Fold these 4 entries.
Entry 1:
Amino acid sequence: MTGLLADSYLWLKALHVISVIAWMAGMLYLPRLFVYHAGEPAGSPTSEIFKVMERRLLRAIINPAMIASLLFGLLMLWANPGLLSQGWFHGKLLLIVAMFAMHHLYARWRKSFAADANSRGDGFYRMMNEVPTVLMIGIVLLAVAKPF
């Protein structure tokens, strides 16, 4: 690590962690909103409130936090390209790709709710609420313990 990025590595890491915390908070809360929204009749006043909450959560918190997480993560990787040769980092990247896939699915499901076209019940969203938690646990264990 050399240069300005290397000198700023710990600041980048702190900003990355802060961004990830915000991203995960949203990723854990949005499907919980889906659970409650799925139990409301389409077009009801409560359903309309959930639509606003879900849109604002995704656009104002989850999307910006995901972008910031990616940006700071890439800057850390640029500052320390040796990470690419470590096995634990490959595992972490795989789990991050899965997290991005979940983010994409959540955005699609939000659009489905917004169009009053949701066809899934609350049980489905309860189950999907657990996926980011499991991914997050795996990512943290790999990043901290570096088991391989």
Entry 2:
Amino acid sequence: MIKLDISIALFIYLFCTVIVTFALWIWMERKTRFTAFKIGRKNVWQCSVCKYVYLGQKDEDFARCPRCKSINKKGVRNL
């Protein structure tokens, strides 16, 4: 029979818990990192008046510039 001291058993238990927690954290971060910042070119607008570049909604035909408040039409001067 293997003799196991209580301090060694506690160390092994805590070490395994930390390793599993760290592995789950890395796996979850890897899964969410690349899906969070996908921006299509249809969402990027450039104002026809002040030339400010900003993000708009996906299915908009018109977008209001946040800087000069002018209305821009889809297909005209958007990136």
Entry 3:
Amino acid sequence: MVHVPWEAVALNLVYPHIAWSSAYVTAVVAVFGTTISPYLFFWQASQEVEEVKEDTTARPLRAAPHQAPFELERIRLDTYVGMAFSNVMALFIMVTAAATLNASGHTDIQTSAEAAEALRPLAGRFAFTLFALGIIGTGILALPVLAGSAAFALGETFRWPVGLARKAHAAKAFYGTIAIATGFGVLINLSPIDPVKALFWSAVVNGVVATPVMTMLMLLASRRSVMGQFALPPVLKTVGWLATLVMALASEAMFVTLLA
């Protein structure tokens, strides 16, 4: 529906135009923050613990190492497939926005209505309906992950009873956190805060917070006193520390350019 210069897209994927400016570097941190989001660490780990609790035949891998080959392969496949889908979708979202909004000079989106204009070549006068359905679907998908990961993180920090398999009366603080986080989300929608900028700056915050979280994760995952025989092998340890370094350098570059 939209003319896309695919040769230019392919070329810039390999040789991107890099600008040493606060806006550019901040956008890079935001992209990193939506890709390696700290809340996903808490969510995925907590869901694995939930599955162990729900399955009477499952046990923690340190106590049942014979279950490791199947479980680790399942986790690996789940992670790779999820990462592939999310990155492909993110790429096409950016390509579509570039070929519609950016190509027509719209580089500073202030409202959701302006963002919906990107869908006009596809949906015509139904662009806003299609955009609204997408936002609602995204919200339904994101709500349990965002609010749930916050509840898991707080619950595990303060040793509350946690878990979506628990009844509400058995995990009041856990479900209370989910309710409060959801309530804040509703209040933001009713406030004069620009939702597009709120999404952008929340991604920037995620990108900055990811560095210390990844550092702690790498330190813990590398210790045999914590992981036993499942401590990170050299390849994963190298890749993990490189990713942490890239996140740290991006955040540092953002602060340098903002203060310059």
Entry 4:
Amino acid sequence: MGVDVREIGQAVAEESAPLQLVRREIAKAIVGQQTLIDRLLVALLCNQHVLIEGVPGLAKTKTVTTLAQTLRASFKRLQFTPDLLPGDLIGTLIYNPKTGDFTTRKGPIFANIILADEINRAPAKVQSALLEAMQERQVTIGDASYPLAEPFLVLATQNPIEQEGTYRLPEAQVDRFMLKLTVGYPGQEEEQRILRLMAGDEEPPAVAPVLDQGDILRLRQLTRRIYLDPKVEEYIVNLVTASRDPRKFGLEIGHLIQYGASPRATIFLALGAKAFALLAGRGYVTPQDVKTIGLDVLRHRITLTYEAEAEEVTPEDIIRRIFDTVAVP
């Protein structure tokens, strides 16, 4: 059964307009950070989680909060600390001495958008509870499991500089994040615009909600319909395979890679490229879409050897060499 790319393109043209409204509303409060905003929208379209890394003061939290304000969906911000308990996140059982019964009090995890601020400050038990929510989209309180409402996204931030009082996230949990984003400093002109917006004598304009849950679910279904040519599928598989067996593609970097990307990388490269094509107003995926989203999908899925660390090679260096070597269809 053939795929009508024109029909998909027409559907994209008709239904993707609200995404431009979201961008416009976010721009009222956020200067620049277009890459971060686009990647958050990709995650929203794919119903997946994002890990955002950057030094303090780069508007990571504000961008996530502003995105949540453009959605008619519930939003909770959780400040992760070393003394946080699983019950503070998922809820707990409350004993009623009059009846002798336990009642369930649900925690803040029961929201559509979760901002996990400084996620690496919480201990292992909290991360375990969060991992169940991220992967299974349910939480267990006592002996009962409760499904989480759709959409459900965990947008987490972490500070790469200050490591006192932090816990390294388990690799299994890091792999659950579709994207790992690194946020850099703004340019000089952007910083001047930030100054005028935030230190001026006028209040920044309010951000209005433009997407409801029905819109989000409809756009997600449209994302799945974006056409992915078999040659682009093969290209995605080759990229991931090259991270595991680089010599097969003529890359002499095997001594730098301890573990290559997991099969989740293949899935997320395909889904991310589809979402990026939708944001660009296209009904089909190009190899450039894969390359554009690829760095953010792969950077936390390639584990380097001690030799690579000694040579100051980064995962980004490895990924760029793979992109430069694997043949593009």
